[in-house]
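Quick one, T. Sequence first:
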Amino acid sequence: MSRLYTGKVFRSTGSWYVVVSDDGSLVLCKLKGRFKIEGIRNTNPIAVGDVVDFEMLPDGETGLIKNIHNRNNHLIRRATKLSKATHIIAANVDQMVLIASLEKPRTSTGFIDRLLVTAEAYHIPSIIVFNKYDLYDADHKEILDFYSKSYTQAGYHVLFTSAKENINLEQFRSVLKGRTSLLSGHSGVGKSALINVLDGSLDLKEGNISDYHHKGTHTTTFAEMFPLSFGGFVIDTPGIKEFGLVAFEKTELGQRFPEMREYMDQCRFNNCLHVSEPGCAVRKAVEESVIPEFRYVNYLNMLSEIED
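Structure tokens:
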């Protein structure tokens, strides 16, 4: 029997995987065929962050992945908007760091909340980083202050940053230090730029912003994990245009909004969806501006997409 080695997946291109073994060596591995049919609905049976067992092939240079260890957690989304197939973004992470921007490109709260809800479902702590603070005028800063207070009251850590003007980068460094962090967000929001300022040795490719669409160009085509010189790891992911929810029940969705969860046990009905039911404590909290209306609207939009 061939000797099995254990390592962590640092890079995934869809057909090949770069695995860092326990002794620190990098091995290019492919996947044993039978795994491709076990998770039929998954476009990628193995994700960056997975711990795997592999054997070396006769060439002595490449490996064959034979086993995937149980995951502590993972983050998943629909592969495409209309597809029922799913895509695992990353596995075994300590936190999700959602990089957003109010300008060039604009990140909608609907997109932010979809990511937060999914991370909540998989018990992954989330941090929201509003980048490009140097671009914001007085109106932007007023909006940002409102969003910051709303998400902070919901229990999220919110940070403002600017890679260009070196704003709050030391705070951002402390967020990442010693942890495995999944970086997520639209293309062009500055994920790579922020990391490059903190750790110049990585030299991650940065995208330009389209002058016409004010949207980022894709520079990352596959997920990849990088070690940080000051401790910890970041998983850089391709910029996500849309984020489709997976395997949510309608009665479960409200549980993934921390500020709604606080009032749900006060609703008259245990199966309240917080839409039009009488005696709904969540709707009352929205009407009294205790729960921000934009969060409730995003909840209703997600609810309408969940199949009965």
